[in-house]
């Protein structure tokens, strides 16, 4: 990679916008010819405005590089070809540690790092410059690199000896790994040079993508036109609004149109087979997996795999062999070391997000609620091309310990509790830990940690070269510009209706984007869509805003630290709601020092492993009906996609999700708190009224269970959201030009998740962005649920929606014909069953 890139840089004016001697040495040592022009940027950004340390570092790097580019053009009368800007920060517990101001500040930093692991982030900006009609035009590629560093325990004497040496004073975090500070480092995970100040490998990989991309010539005319227009207007094929997991999956597909996504048409490892086998043993077979267990101390136990079966020559179970083969989980020596092929990038795709970085909102939500691991298992993720990608990543990084096994025993103390998850039986466990590959294959059906999943996101973004794809901006309006009568072409508007020529998308600040396809993969634009109980509006007294918060407000105020929401010890907190978000809030309140937490829910406590369906439903082991709906995997999908009426599908969604539920893992954490009397669970209970006492600075709440009263400091509402497309201002113009039928606020979009024929606006499950963290109950689902199913807002639904949208957009550009509806329904069934729709 170095030689081709270096040859492209030969004769170009390359500038390092940094006075750091360490960054200068890194570039000098590889023989690169460059100039050093230190940036005069004041570095006065407010860290509080950036939700993640890497976002702050990256924005600082961009401003440093742009300042140098502009100054050289205007003052030096010399326009550089490439400016490299960088900013390095050390972060621990979400706090940024920059260069110490003095010795006490250095002591504070190093004491905090002692014996702990921290992250080193370097934000990088590669600014390409050119002059057009006498004006400077710039194109920015921005990204960041993270390296994790573990310090040994440092004694007071060692700390002060190091501080007195003077080395910490000009270094982020107060140490230099390449000098004396390196003696403190026990382990390092990632790029060493990133800690020094410049991630060389990442930089040259980005330069290689830019200078050696053969497909770049096809995009050059539009790229130059966009550069000439500057920030005022851009013309793109596809605009994706939002930068969460669903958007990441979609862009991966659109950027690699020559690659074939993982195809489940050949079946699922045991999903279809288990369902058929169960019927062969006598229909629903044996004791039902779920069921209501009454009485304190009820216990469900998961059985260990046992017994012997015939094995293949390589030691695998004979019944497992075809199942693994159908999933593509079998080992193939010829594929070892191969990378996913990257197809030609024919479409100009723009991703716009308020934060200008991938997955910042996702990070913010998981951090605010301190969610330790995902609810979806390791076979469900954001890489559409490799089902094994997450498990392989964990294994390669030696982080299998962050893949959490499903609990094998669960004690339910609440006499009203409903536990409808029978865990995995012997047969399924044998499938998942086949033959001598138990350690590897057991990892597929585990729950990845939040940190592992975030690092997997970063790995995917780097692998598919998506780091510079997100543009900072907030969409204010989407205006469909209609084609003139008789124009527009394509297959849209075949019924004589209007056809969108393009969408004029206005961003905050006045700039516009001209997009031919728009995909909404962001959250709702109205905070008022939060479901707030009626008794809240009946509170007569004024009360401090932070004393009653909905989940949406909770996350916004938390800003990555629960201390911003609960700052006083020994408080009494009331949590209202029965879903997983309410369980996280209960745990957060206790961790923040609350002396008691009262947990109120209007129904029984429901414990369920997955957001949609339990383990038995997932594998289709037990056939059963509820209110005429088959809830055992494949039959449910067949019945769902056979239904053409949106209202009936909505009823099926309600039945499948069954309202809010907590996971066995979350309940396992709360159970000891209930036993200790710290958490009080109130099932079949609602708040009737609440009043705020200014004199006592406390709430007085009347509960429905025997007119019981509660007095405390804070009320947290985990009562979900209710979306209504008619109330979303972002969609007002689209709805006016293309009115579609609404079902309880959800539009009846087509099977491709397109708004309407002739209108290339697509909606994804991630449109309810909060739901990716299970913050709201089923009513927080999005418009796409009616077409994709009850799993639309989850990771599996994100893959399904991305596959449909990408296929529709690519077919539109290739002018291919759609399949008939019956074949497409079977495609949807196969796809979702193969994705293991939890």
TrEMBL record:
Keyword Nucleotide-binding in annotation: no
Region feature (Disordered): 278-319
Record CDD domains: Maf
Organism superkingdom: Eukaryota
Gene responsible for this protein: LOC116955684
SUPFAM superfamilies in UniProt: FAD/NAD(P)-binding domain, ITPase-like
Database matches in Pfam families: Maf
Listed HAMAP family: Maf (MF_00528)
Classification via NCBIfam families: maf
Organism: Petromyzon marinus (Sea lamprey)
Protein name as annotated: Uncharacterized protein LOC116955684 isoform X3
GO terms, molecular function: nucleoside triphosphate diphosphatase activity
Gene3D superfamilies: 3.90.950.10, FAD/NAD(P)-binding domain
Annotated keywords: Hydrolase
InterPro entries for the chain: FAD/NAD-bd_sf, ITPase-like_fam, Maf-like
């Amino acid at each position: 990679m170095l030689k081709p890139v270096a040859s492209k840089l030969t004769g170009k004016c390359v500038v390092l916008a940094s006075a750091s001697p360490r960054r200068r040495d890194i570039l000098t040592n590889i023989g690169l010819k460059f100039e050093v022009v230190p940036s005069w940027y004041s570095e006065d950004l407010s860290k509080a405005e950036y939700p993640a340390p890497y976002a702050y570092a990256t924005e600082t790097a961009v401003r440093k590089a742009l300042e140098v580019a502009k100054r050289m053009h205007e003052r030096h009368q010399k326009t550089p070809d490439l400016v490299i800007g960088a900013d390095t920060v050390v972060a621990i517990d979400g706090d940024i540690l920059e260069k110490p101001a003095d010795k006490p500040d250095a002591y504070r930093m190093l004491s905090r790092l002692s014996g702990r692991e921290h992250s080193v982030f370097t934000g990088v900006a590669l600014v390409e410059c050119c002059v057009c009609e006498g004006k400077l035009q710039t194109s920015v590629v921005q990204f960041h690199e993270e390296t994790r560093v573990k310090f040994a325990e440092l004694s007071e004497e060692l700390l002060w000896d190091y501080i007195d040496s003077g080395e910490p004073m000009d270094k982020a975090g107060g140490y230099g790994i390449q000098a004396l500070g390196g003696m403190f480092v026990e382990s390092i995970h990632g790029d060493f040079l990133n800690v020094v100040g410049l991630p060389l490998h990442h930089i040259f990989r980005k330069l290689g993508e830019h200078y050696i991309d053969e497909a770049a010539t096809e995009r050059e005319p539009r790229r130059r036109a966009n550069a000439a227009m500057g920030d005022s207007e851009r013309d793109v094929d596809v605009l994706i609004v939002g930068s969460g997991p669903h958007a990441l999956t979609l862009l991966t597909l659109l950027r690699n149109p020559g690659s074939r996504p993982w195809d489940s048409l050949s079946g699922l490892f045991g999903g279809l087979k288990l369902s058929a086998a169960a019927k062969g043993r006598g229909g629903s077979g044996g004791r039902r997996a779920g069921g209501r267990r009454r009485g304190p101390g009820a216990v469900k136990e998961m059985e260990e795999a046992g017994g012997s079966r015939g094995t293949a020559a390589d030691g695998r179970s004979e019944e497992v062999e075809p199942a693994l083969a159908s999933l593509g989980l079998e080992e193939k020596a010829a594929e070892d070391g191969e990378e996913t092929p990257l197809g030609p990038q024919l479409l100009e795709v723009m991703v716009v997000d308020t934060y200008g970085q991938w997955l910042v909102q996702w990070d913010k939500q998981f951090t605010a609620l301190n969610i330790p691991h995902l609810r979806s298992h390791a076979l469900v993720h954001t890489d559409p091309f490799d089902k094994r990608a997450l498990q392989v990543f964990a294994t390669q990084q030696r982080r299998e310990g962050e893949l959490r096994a499903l609990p094998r025993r669960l004690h339910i103390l609440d006499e009203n509790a409903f536990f409808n998850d029978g865990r995995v039986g012997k047969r399924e466990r044998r499938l998942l830990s086949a033959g001598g590959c138990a350690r590897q294959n057991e990892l597929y059906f585990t729950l990845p940690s939040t940190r592992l999943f975030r690092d997997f996101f970063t790995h995917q973004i780097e692998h598919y070269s998506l780091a510079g794809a997100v543009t900072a901006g907030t969409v204010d309006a989407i205006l469909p510009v209609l084609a003139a009568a008789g124009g527009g072409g394509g297959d849209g508007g075949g019924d004589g209706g209007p056809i969108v020529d393009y969408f004029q998308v206005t961003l905050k600040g006045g700039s516009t984007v001209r997009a031919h396809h728009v995909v909404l993969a962001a959250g709702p634009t109205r905070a008022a869509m939060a479901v707030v109980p009626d008794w809240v509006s009946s509170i007569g007294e004024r009360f401090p805003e932070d004393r009653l918060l909905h989940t949406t407000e909770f996350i916004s105020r938390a800003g990555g630290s629960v201390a911003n929401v609960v700052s006083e010890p020994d408080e009494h907190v009331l949590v209202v709601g029965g879903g997983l978000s309410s369980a996280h809030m209960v745990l957060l309140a206790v961790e923040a020092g609350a002396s008691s937490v009262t947990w109120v829910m209007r129904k029984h406590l429901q414990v369920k492993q997955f957001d949609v369906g339990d383990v038995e439903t997932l594998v289709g082991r037990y056939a059963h009906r509820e209110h005429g709906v088959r809830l055992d995997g494949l039959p449910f999908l067949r019945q769902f996609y056979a239904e053409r009426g949106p209202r009936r599908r909505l009823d099926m969604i309600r039945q499948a999700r069954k309202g809010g539920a907590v996971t066995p893992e979350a309940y396992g954490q709360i159970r000891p708190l209930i036993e200790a009397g710290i958490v009080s669970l109130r099932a079949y209970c609602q708040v009737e009224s609440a009043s705020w006492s200014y004199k006592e600075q406390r709430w007085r709440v009347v509960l429905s269970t025997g007119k019981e009263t509660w007095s405390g400091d804070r009320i947290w509402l985990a009562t979900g959201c209710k979306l209504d497309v008619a109330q979303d201002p972002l969609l007002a113009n689209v709805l006016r030009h293309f009115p579609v039928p609404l079902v309880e606020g959800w539009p009846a979009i087509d099977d491709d998740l397109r708004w309407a024929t002739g209108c290339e606006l697509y909606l994804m499950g991630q449109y309810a962005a909060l739901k990716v963290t299970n913050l709201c109950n089923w009513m927080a689902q999005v418009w796409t649920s009616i077409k994709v199913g009850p799993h639309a807002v989850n990771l599996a639904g994100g893959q399904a929606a991305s596959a449909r949208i990408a296929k529709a957009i690519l077919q539109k550009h290739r002018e291919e014909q759609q399949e008939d509806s019956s074949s497409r329904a079977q495609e949807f069934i196969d796809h979702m069953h193969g994705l293991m729709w939890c």
